[in-house]
Design a protein that fits this description.
The complex is a heterodimer of chains A (318) and B (354). Chain A has 318 residues and is an all-alpha fold. Helices cover 81% and strands 0% of the residues of chain A. Chain B is flat and about 70 Å long. The two termini of chain B are 40 Å apart. The chains are: A mainly alpha (318), B mainly alpha (354).
Chain lengths: 318, 354
């Protein structure tokens, strides 16, 4: 049976005497989710909401910092919960994806444990070693479970740890340097995930696209910071990193036929170039604004034209 | 490609008892046009972001140069730009002019509003006039991006008319309720809407996404509870509307899943109602859940992703909600979490029974 999508339904509705009730039935049959989809989705949805709301409830409870609760009780409660949940996880007979959801919740509980520890012994909530401890404690779980949302939390933890480390320990670095470090960390995970994809590992598209988006966002910010920051001792590293990564990304987009990469990287380049132009402006020179506006419109249009042509070419090749 | 169209038409005819008349020539023409203009989310984002940035730069130029202190000139240029972008769209139905035409359109709207405001025209009138202009452009051209921007313009004008112009901040809930009802209607009555007219069927996709954006924007307002003396009391009204909408959606889902056993039905409604009542303390969470369920119902992946992001954001922002103590919030969240797990057990048991 032919795969019918919304575009088809709309085009045919416009040019026929197709009845509303029949359109309705076709939508339900071919486009909307079926009973089976709903069963799979709802079990996952309810499990995820159950785990995340419960963990959030526990987190809020400890953040309330109940004075009457002795510190041993506090830490003991969370540790007991951690052990209990992990045991349930191992012995429960449910689908692996649901186990992974529970493990993600347990990973967040480890953070709560570190936070309560910090609360009792006054280490501060944003100390980098707090996040370092959390990251290291959950590393093996992340590796074993190999669950995309869990990986995402892990990568976020690494970013946060480095961010605080740079802020608290290596103090006298320029602002954009932290951004460049974020670019490198996330680009590392992106490249590894794309290489694994080549080796037929199943990595969801939303995961690599999200990472690519984060890399491009940080790359754009750090380059703009370099442009507007005048003490440019490290600017070479930033510019060089971004340039290499963008060339790699464009190459990947062309070879693997991924228009996502071919859209966001040029858009970032256009934004970066526009900020170079803005830096040249003395604020009464209105001609420059006209030039920037025209530059953006023309370049974005050219990028869209290029992507459209490529998409057409790729479709014909299939 | 003609082959594929034949297959589709055959499938559709086979699924229908009466004979359908297809205008095959017109259908193929539309497919040919689509072939060269196959859009994707990446391309749409490119046009919107590019158009937005270019608009800012052009406005900078216009205000600093030729249009200094001349309201009438703003007005005329504004109308000219709006007309220009509509003509452009009607003449060339091509994706590549999108960036250009939406920045022209956005500049036009901005200049028009600024011009009228400088001329001391009544603000209510400006809002109504802007809605009128946007509706006319929707009638004249159904280009995806332009329609998306026009519908957002209608919504922004509406929220200004209701809320900002008169500083009647409690009316934000009325606006939210209107958007919510429109959203549910558009999602659930897709067949009806696209069947009404050819124009509406072209407007369906942009209408849907701009309602999603407006809906999330409305939820965002709720987060800033003490926004201009917005009173907490009235948030309940919106929560009730959300509550009813979700229960209505649940009735549809139960029907779709063929849950016919009376006890199972009652069980689902009662459990859902308790959870919804508990989460109603934070309408943003309720709203995000509604968006996720609606998007899954019609299998619309983009707004599903937006719903998931909104839910994560709403739960994390709940932490900073100062209207309840952390202990209260902790109990609310913990209880609803346990109840969700109960729902999980319930659904997986039902699935096993099948």
């Amino acid at each position: 049976m032919e795969n019918i999508n919304r575009e088809d339904v709309q085009i045919i509705t416009r040019n026929s005497n197709w009845q509303e009730i029949d359109i309705f039935n076709l939508l339900h049959l071919n486009i909307y989710n079926t009973k089976k989809d709903w069963q799979n989705f709802l079990t996952l949805f309810f499990m995820s909401l159950g785990v995340s709301f419960t963990v959030a409830g526990i987190l809020f409870f400890f953040a309330y910092n109940w004075d009457d609760l002795h510190k041993f009780v506090k830490i003991g409660l969370i540790q007991g919960l951690l052990v209990a949940l992990t045991l349930i996880l191992v012995y429960l007979k449910i689908k692996p994806v649901l186990k992974n959801v529970i493990l993600t919740g347990v990973t967040m509980l480890v953070g709560v444990l570190f936070a309560v520890f910090g609360q009792i012994y006054q280490t501060g909530a944003n100390a980098y070693d707090f996040f370092l401890g959390w990251t290291m404690a959950v590393f093996i779980w992340v590796l074993i479970a190999d669950f995309a949302p869990l990986w995402l939390i892990f990568i976020a933890l690494i970013n946060i740890t480095f961010g605080f480390y740079i802020e608290q320990v290596i103090i006298d670095l320029p602002d954009y340097f932290a951004q460049t470090v974020f670019v490198l960390i996330n680009a590392f995970f992106l490249i590894v995930s794309l290489l694994l994809k080549e080796k037929k590992y199943i990595i969801p598209n939303w995961f690599s696209n999200l990472l690519a988006f984060v890399v491009v966002a940080f790359a754009t910010f750090s380059t703009i910071f370099v442009i507007f920051d005048n003490g440019q001792e490290f600017f070479f590293i930033t510019v060089f990193t971004v340039l290499i990564l963008y060339l790699l990304g464009l190459y990947y987009g062309f070879v693997k036929q991924r228009s996502f990469y071919l859209s966001i990287i040029p858009l970032s380049a256009i934004i970066i170039f526009s900020s170079l132009l803005i830096k040249q402006i003395k604020w009464n020179e209105y001609g420059m604004f006209l030039f920037i506006g025209l530059f953006i419109v023309v370049s974005v249009t050219l990028v869209i034209k290029m992507v459209l042509n490529l998409q057409k070419k790729w479709r014909n090749e299939q | 490609m003609s082959n594929r169209v034949d297959h589709i038409l055959e499938t559709i005819q086979n699924a229908t008892s009466s004979k359908i008349e297809f205008d095959k020539k017109a259908i193929l023409t539309e497919y040919h046009k689509l072939e060269d203009n196959q859009s994707s989310i990446a391309i749409k984002v490119l046009s919107v972001v590019g158009g937005f940035l270019a608009t800012i730069a052009f406005l900078g130029f216009l205000f600093l140069s030729v249009l200094q202190n001349s309201e009438i000139a703003w007005l005329i240029t504004g109308l000219f730009f709006i007309g220009f972008s509509i003509v452009l769209n009607r003449k060339y139905e091509k994706l590549i002019i999108d960036t250009f035409s939406i920045s022209a359109y956005a500049i036009g709207i901005f200049l028009l509003v600024f011009g009228l405001k400088e001329l001391d025209v009544n603000e209510n009138l400006i809002a109504v006039f802007t809605i009128f202009i946007a509706l006319i452009s929707l009638y004249l051209t159904q280009n995806y991006i332009l329609a998306f921007v026009s519908i957002l313009v209608v919504n922004i004008s509406l929220v200004s008319l209701l809320v900002f112009i008169h500083s009647s901040y409690n009316l934000i809930h009325l606006y939210n309720a209107i958007v919510l009802i429109a959203l549910v209607y558009v999602f659930l009555f897709e067949a009806k809407i696209i069947h009404i007219s050819a124009k509406l069927s072209k407007l369906y996709n942009p209408l849907r996404i701009s309602l999603v954006i407006s809906f999330l924007f409305g939820l965002g307002f709720l987060r800033t509870r003490n926004f201009h003396g917005m009173q907490l009391d009235y948030i309940w009204h919106y929560a009730i509307v959300l509550f009813i909408a979700i229960i209505y959606l649940i009735s549809k889902i139960l029907k779709l899943m063929h849950v016919t056993n009376k006890n199972h039905q009652i069980g689902s409604y009662v459990l859902s109602a308790i959870i919804l009542a508990l989460t109603a303390f934070s309408p943003s969470i309720l709203g995000a859940i509604l968006l996720i369920l609606l998007s899954f119902y019609v299998n619309y992946k983009f707004s599903f992703a937006l719903g998931v992001i909104a839910l994560i954001y709403a739960v994390s922002q709940y932490y900073y909600d100062l209207n309840y103590t952390l202990l209260t919030k902790s109990i609310l969240l913990f209880t609803s979490g346990i109840l969700f797990l109960a729902l999980y057990l319930f659904t997986s048991k039902l699935a096993k029974n099948d």
